[in-house]
Amino acid sequence: MLEAILLTIATAATPLLLAAIGELVAERSGVLNLGVEGMMIMGAVAAFAVAYTTGNPWLGALAGALAGVSFSLLFGLLTLTLATNQVASGLALTILGLGASGMLGESFVGLPGVKLEAVSIPVLSDLPLVGRLLFGQDPFFYLSILLGIGVWWFLFRSRAGLELRSVGANHASAHALGLKVIRVRYLAVMFGGLCAGLAGAQLTLVYTPQWVENMSAGRGWIALALVVFASWRPGRIVVGAYLFGAVSIGQLHAQALGIGLPSQLLSALPYLATIAVLVLISRDRRATLMNTPASLGQPFVPDR
Questions:
Q1: Residue 190 is assigned to a structural domain of this protein
Q2: Fewer CB near the last or first residue (10 Å), C or N of the chain?
Q3: Number of C-beta neighbours around residue 161 at 10 A
Q4: Is 170 left (phi over 0), alpha (psi -120 to 50) or beta?
Q5: For residues 267 and 262, what is the distance between their CA atoms, to the nearest angstrom?
């Protein structure tokens, strides 16, 4: 029973972790992309469509990643090249993604999906409790952990990561030092789109191998809250993703056990937890300002 709960928590946390890690890199560069939900749902429908058509879930995962990158490039064109408002553009991206995914996925509703099978490491996956949890997971799980470690190393142990953080801290000074601010931000936004697309692909290839309209169900917004919750630090995002995953799965088990609470209230628990976390964080305004990239959300127009 405990093993099954832990496995479902890991599966529920993986899309949150993938999307949040990508958004963390984008925000560290000074770009606030509120279109995570839109990129995620487009990744989900693209992954399902390609996997169903070809019968190959790996091609589906690739399609989901490319869909996320494509939508992120649209956001980059609007906010980085044309210097439009990042908040408005991100909201428009989410609305566009939700509408376009519903239209593109209409013919796939109700069709059986192609599941990306879990990796099974002989002997190790047979260990009690930790066997399937650590050595019998799907590839998205391992990718999310590797990305969390890789992003930490990139941001705090590499020169390129220092440049990205410099752009996010003060884009004018970074530009004066010769850094290519727009290029750095484009790459960061594309990475965020890649991760969001993979998060969407995980939903239709692993979490629930089928296509249902709006199946991202607000996970993109939770990922955005996770970045703030983690104070823009990768390690805290990993912890936060699993906490939110536990809340999501906890409400399902609570319903199964017949706990005397309205099912609507139990379903709302992940989002209520998100609101509660944001309220608690906002109380310590000084700590929040110290960790927030100073140029976050500010457009940059280089001198001509």
A1: yes
A2: C
A3: 17
A4: beta
A5: 9
What is the per-residue burial (b if ≥16 Cβ within 10 Å, else e) of 127-137? eeeebbbbbbb
Q: pLDDT at position 255, please?
A: 61
Spatial contact of 69 and 197, defined as CB atoms under 8 Å apart: yes
Q: What is the CATH number of the domain that holds 15?
A: 1.10.3470
Residue 87 lies in a domain: yes
Domain presence at residue 301 = no
Fill in the DSSP letter of residue 108.
Answer: G
Phi, psi angles (nearest 5°) of residue 34: -85, 10
Radius of gyration, CA atoms only, the chain: 19
Mean of all residue pLDDT scores within the chain: 87
* Distance from C-alpha of 246 to C-alpha of 300, rounded to nearest angstrom: 39
Query: Which residue from 34, 35, 95, 101 is spatially nearest to 64, judged by alpha carbons?
Result: 101
**Predicted confidence (pLDDT) per residue in 122-144, tens digit:** 766 767 777 777 778 889 999 99
Q: Which two tokens stand for residue 153?
A: 């190393």
